[in-house]
Write a structure and sequence with these properties.
Elements lengths: L2 H19 L3 E6 H10 L8 E4 L7 E14 L5 H22 L4 E7 L11 E6 L3 E12 L1
Parallel strand pairs: 2-4
Antiparallel strand pairs: 1-5, 3-6, 4-6, 5-6
Length: about 140
């Protein structure tokens, strides 16, 4: 096999992987249940509370519109497992940011996949392809 044929085969293989990954499926999972699992497992310490848009009002907003966009290896994992894992990464980032600013909540959380905002009072969106799962969230750092 010539170098040229090897290069063509590699290029086709890489483009095939990219096209498979481009076919992300959006899944919705229960946000509260996922947060509760993360607290029960010790991934989150419970000192920062998380509220989807429309579920909590009040407090002093210290930073509006904070965005987190996390990805994880989703190859060979169910959408539920991969999405739960990547949501935890997003929540950890929010928790650290809230604590560093003296806040104890992240409010008005919406899904923000590819900068498209989706509001729900019960679920979050997770994009799952063959190899990668991703969660993007937008929320306000708040002190109660």
């Amino acid at each position: 096999m010539s170098i040229k044929n090897i290069c063509i085969a590699l290029a086709l293989g890489v483009s095939g992987i990219a096209s498979v990954q481009a076919a992300d499926t959006i899944h919705q999972f229960n946000f509260k249940e996922a947060v509760d699992r993360a607290v029960a497992d010790g991934v989150l310490d419970g000192t920062v509370k998380f509220y989807l848009a429309g579920t909590q009002a009040g407090g002093q907003v210290l930073q509006k519109g904070l965005v987190t966009n996390k990805k994880t290896n989703g190859f060979g994992k169910t959408a539920e497992n991969a999405c739960d894992h990547v949501l935890r990464s997003a929540l950890i980032q929010f928790e650290k940011t809230a604590k560093s600013r003296g806040a104890n909540a992240v409010t008005n959380i919406t899904s923000f996949y590819k900068s498209n905002e989706t509001r729900s009072t019960t679920t979050y969106d997770c994009a799952k392809g063959t190899a990668v799962a991703g969660v993007a969230l937008k929320g306000d750092i708040t002190k109660f």
